[in-house]
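Moderator note: this is an archived Q&A kept for reference. The question asked for a predicted structure of one protein chain; the sequence and the answer are reproduced below.
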Amino acid sequence: MRILIPAIIAAASFQLEAAPAAVSFDCAKVETYKVASDDELKLYIFNPDDHRPGKDKRPAIMFFFGGGWNGGTPGQFEQHCRYLAARGMVAITADYRVKSRQNTSPKECVADGKSAVRYIRQNANRLGIDPKWIAAGGGSAGGHVAATTGFVDGFEDPKDAQSISSKANALVLFNPVYDNGPGGYGHDRVKDYWEKFSPAHNITKDDSPAVVFLGTKDSLIPVKTAEKFRDDMREAGIKSELHLYEGQAHGFFNESKGGTEIFLDTIRKMDQFLVEAGFLKGKPTEQQVKAVSRPSTKKKKKKK
C-alpha cells in the first residue's frame, strides 16, 4: 500500500489538473463552443436583464483570462461581464486551453480564442448578438489572445468554419503581453513563429480600435512597448488609447490586487472607450459602476 498510495494520489492530481477550468456563476448561461484535447471548452454568457435571445441584436464582448498561457480561470473577468451586461451588452468570459491543464502551446490558446469569437458570430442570431459588433478583451496572456483576434492572421483551428470571421471589432486590453519579438514576452516559447504571432508586429490599417491599461511598474511590459504600440496603431490610422497607472505592477487592474479605486477607474475608462467606439450608449451612473465592486475583506497588518 505504501507504494500504491503515492501513485494513486499522483494519478488523481493529474486528472484534476487535466480537467477544464471548473467555475460556475449565478445568472450566467453556459455553452460549449468547442471540444479540444478531449475537453469541452465553455463560454459563460452574461445577458442584460431585458435581453431577448433570438430577437435582439446587441453588441457583445468576449474576455480571456490571464495566466501566461499556462493557467488561469474565466472567473477573472466575472465583474467586467456583470458590469457590461448591466450596461446593455452581452458579456462573455471564455475558457481556453492552457499548458497546466491540457499541455498545450501558446498556439492553441490563440486558436481557441479565435474559435470563441467565431462561435458567437456564427450563433449571433440565436444569442441575440449583432455579429458586426463583437469586442474582445483580456488580461496579460489573455490580453494577448484577445489582441490576436484583432491583429493576427492565421493560427485558426482547421476544424472551424473558416468562412466565418474570427476578427474582433474592438479590443479592451489589460496589461497585454502583445510584443512577442526578441526581448518581448514569451519569445523563447514562440521563437519559431513570433513574427506572425506577435500582435505588436502585425498592425495593419484594417485592424480594430484598442484601449490598453498598464501599470508603470509592470515587470513584463515596458511602458515604451505600450507607447510604441499606441503610436504604431495611430500611424496606421486606427483609434488607440493608452492609460498608464503610476507605480502599479502587473495585474493591477484586478480589484483584489490594485484596490477598488483603481479597479473602478479602469471600469469607467473601459466604458468610455466602448461608448466612443459605438458599443455602448450614454454615461453610466456611479451606482452602476460601484455595484460591481467586491473589495477585499482582508485586513492589512499593522506595522510595528
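Archived answer notes: The domain at 37-291 is CATH 3.40.50.1820 (Rossmann fold).
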